[in-house]
Design goal:
The protein contains six helices and seven strands; from the N terminus they run βαβαββαβαβαβα. With 179 residues, the protein is of the alpha/beta class. The chain has a single domain, classed as 3-Layer(aba) Sandwich (Rossmann fold). The two termini are 13 Å apart.
Length: 179
Amino acid sequence: MKRICVFCGSNPGKDSRFSSAADDLGRRIAQRGLGLVFGGGRVGLMGAVADAALAAGGEVVGVIPDALMRKELAHDGLTDLRVVGSMHERKAMMEKLSDAFICLPGGFGTLDEFCEILTWSQLGIHSKPCAILNVGGYFDPFLKFVDGAVQAGFIRAGDDLKLIRESDPGRLLDLIVGG
């Protein structure tokens, strides 16, 4: 495994545990000699995870659509910043550059990116690990939805097991890349 993609918010959220987890995850990714792929912004949880990985000496690759360069305040201190034409291109490039995916707290964009990657796993387009870092129970309602969708027959039993669930960054990385 070479790189882990982290999907997360361009805002920090109201709970300081979100930024702490992003910082911890970014640092741990770099300490394990792995690269980080993320949305390219310098603000919010995106900035926190990138800054922590960079401070720990890690490779950090940002992927940002041209239209979001100013809105998300592109990070200018990255190992590599890839500017793409659309959100569709962003997701495709992030998938291509990454060997695993982790979702931190965020909003619609975060869920859009992660759910598309998770769907691609369900469809067999890739077989890379997909994980949620459930900081402070943030994803409990989403995980309840997933469990309900399995019970209702909209997600095949077993496909939900493709979604790794953990609340501790270190244990999550152990599950993805080994301890």
